[in-house]
Amino acid sequence: MWLLMSANYMSSVELKDVAKRYGEISAVDNVDLSVKPGEIFGLLGPNGSGKSTTLKMLLGLVQPDMGSVEVLGINVEKDPIAVKRQVGYVPESPRLYEFLTGIEYLDFIGDIYGVRTEEKRERINEYLKALELKGREGDMISSYSEGMKQKVALISAFIHRPRLLILDEPLSGLDPRSARIVKDLLHELKAQGVTTLMSTHILEIAQALCGRIAIMYQGRLLALGTMDELRQRASMPGSDLEDIFLKLTGTGDIKAVVEELLK
Amino acid sequence: MNWKNVAHLIRVDMKSGRLLRGRRLTKYRESRLFTYLLYGGALTLGLAVGAIAGFIYNGISNVTDPQLMSLFHKGLLDLFLSLPTLVLIYSMVFTMMQQIQRSGVKLSVQAPYWLPITWEEHTLASILANLLGFLLVSIIFIGSAIIVLSIFIGSVAYAALTFFAMLASAFMASAITELFRILQVRFIGAVYKSSGRAAVWVRFAGSLLFFIVFYIVYFFLTSGAGAIAFVQTVASAQGAMWFIPFVWLGMALTSFINGLPLQTLIFLTLSLLFILSLFYAAVILNRRLGLYEPPAITVSRGVYAPRTGFLGKLGFSTVEAALIRKDLKAFTRRRELMYIFVLPIVILIMPLVQSLGATGASMPTGASLPLFALVFLMPGALIAMSMGNLIIGEEGAAMWRIYSAPISAKSLVKSKYFFIVFFSALVTTVTGIIGAAAFHPSVRAILIGSTESFLLMFALGAVSLTNGIKGADFTELPRPRMMRPLWGLINLIACFVVGIAILIPFIPYALSFVPFVSTRPTIDLYQAVVISAVIAVVIALVAYRMALRNARELLTKAEM
Prior knowledge:
The complex is a heterodimer of chains A (about 260) and B (about 550).
Chain A: E1 13-22, E2 25-35, E3 40-44, H1 51-58, E4 66-71, E5 74-75, H2 80-85, E6 87-90, H3 102-112, H4 117-130, H5 146-158, E7 164-168, H6 176-191, E8 195-199, H7 203-209, E9 212-217, E10 220-225, H8 227-234, H9 241-248, H10 254-262
Parallel strand pairs in A: 3-8, 3-9, 6-7, 7-8
Antiparallel strand pairs in A: 1-2, 1-4, 4-5, 9-10
Helix pairs in contact in A: 3-4, 8-9
Chain B: H1 3-15, H2 17-21, H3 32-63, H4 66-101, H5 103-108, H6 119-131, H7 134-153, H8 156-193, H9 197-222, H10 224-237, H11 248-257, H12 261-289, H13 309-313, H14 318-333, H15 335-338, H16 342-357, H17 365-390, H18 399-404, H19 409-439, H20 443-470, E1 472-473, E2 482-483, H21 485-503, H22 507-511, H23 525-556
Antiparallel strand pairs in B: 1-2
Helix pairs in contact in B: 1-6, 3-7, 4-7, 4-8, 4-10, 4-11, 6-8, 6-12, 7-8, 8-11, 8-12, 9-16, 11-12, 14-19, 16-17, 16-19, 17-19, 17-20, 19-20, 19-23, 20-21, 20-23, 21-23
């Protein structure tokens, strides 16, 4: 059971007027964003839209040029370590220490987050069994398939029972059973008050999992809301997220592109 | 055999060197002129050296006794005779070193099996590509020199045959290296992918053993007395070893110079058959194992028991202890990090082989103290310098874990610094014990040597860690970079300056060992130790604070 202390903050993630520039390029442009505790929130956008920079700012890895970032009620710039302690993070295509065995890696992660030895052992075993890694935990990570590495990365995000999960393409490479387990787990955690902020390019997953969705484009927040609110915003009643996404990001000229390629 | 395919593959292999040189892969431009200039330069230089040697030979022959001249002439022909075997040996050393250096790159230029290219073409291209560069340059240089010289001594045909034999020897060496490379992928690759505690130590000990054997052979062959004795042995004992295929080219030359055309032809044919058999063996192995993916072998499993361990008792937090344990595994399991242990091995073997192995005699007493100082001071200092350089960059693409975990700058620097000092101390202790056993220094020399060695470790460890954080390069493809070249250079200079600063109080004493310098030590050795300690401590403290500042900056400017 994921035991949580009562939250003394209104939003798990609070970005106020945040901007970040890299020279001439505006990576994040005056973004305001608030994610409520216990919400599964989707951050979508084409490549280079500023999602990764936004996620990095949440962990204090990139300092914004202006605005403020608060995670779990803590100012990230002032105390990044306190934030990291309560966040579980899976980057897009996570690189693990391939010279460690699966169990050694998870043990290392447990130690980094200060999980007590007995709890650590118990949790690692539970996750290994659930994600069908039992029996391979003693093998070098270098011998794992991409899907197995993704499972290890996910376990390492869950192991310390964080209050906020920041997941970049969390289901990438997972077999259907494991993907379903992770999806169900995220739903269960939501019920227990754990917030999930996920970024994905698989829009069906975002549509199925996320309560609210934000669409970023060229550093700006184009749209934010529930599926119904997004449909309204795009004036596309009954449409799915893919059509809405393509319309809002101005990349809807797919048919013309395909026709051009077939010439 | 489609020769165009072979040529294309050779060009691809040559271009893979760009990855080694660490050039930017965008907007890449390369002048071919320099490559051709290198071979042209070797040819021109070889012709010039050969001509000069020929004129000298002519000059000597005009004024020297004919009997002596005939001995000199025979000596020259003996030298020609030993060239193919010498080329074989240094080609093998060179191509194998090249393979070690390019092991990571080789993975990224793996055979594109879906293309219409045969394994014969792949294998031939790989063997020929290995010969390009320094190896071919040196053969062109030596070959052109001996051909021009042979005009003066009247043995042009013999020199031409020698040149051909040298090329054949180099090909032979490269084919052997290719065979080893494929076998290495199969067997060592499997060991590297194996798991379990025993496997870790098999890998570690195996790698160290490889380097020890490699460098003993290398220094034995390249150290002055050993090399001369070796050439003499090769020239005189070839006949006695006729049954070894590697000397058949030399035998062909011997037969040729002795006017035995049939034997020459037989040995040449046998040599060519042997080269062909090596080539086809490599082709067969490549066909079977060229795309081999070693399976993960579990050597021993054992029950893994997480624990805080001894480090906790030493006052390290759980986070710091976890980082230290992780680094310990990294440096004993990752091939590219294990190479760091080559440094102390080289430093240890070089003087030991030179003093004992090559000459077979023990070291004169006067010369043993500087060698002992070398063995005692250098390994730990170099390990501290290189480890500090790499220990942040070695995190590679997995650095996201450090960035995103609750690891403070203080914990990061403390754990990494402890690890550097711990490993350097361990290495110094081992090399010091071997050095003491080999060179029999006084107790005072051991005491001062160990103190200075530790001072160097503390100071250089802190300085290189500071630079290592600043210059860390987390790029992993095609192989782990770990350190930006500019910062590597800065670190080298900084460590050199710091090392000199710490050892400066001993300079008057060290001067007394230099021949023809009459300066006697004007400072008591123990006073020198105290001054040196003060300098080292100040440097270590300042560098440690700088490392903390750099680490804070690193953790807030993630480059994932």
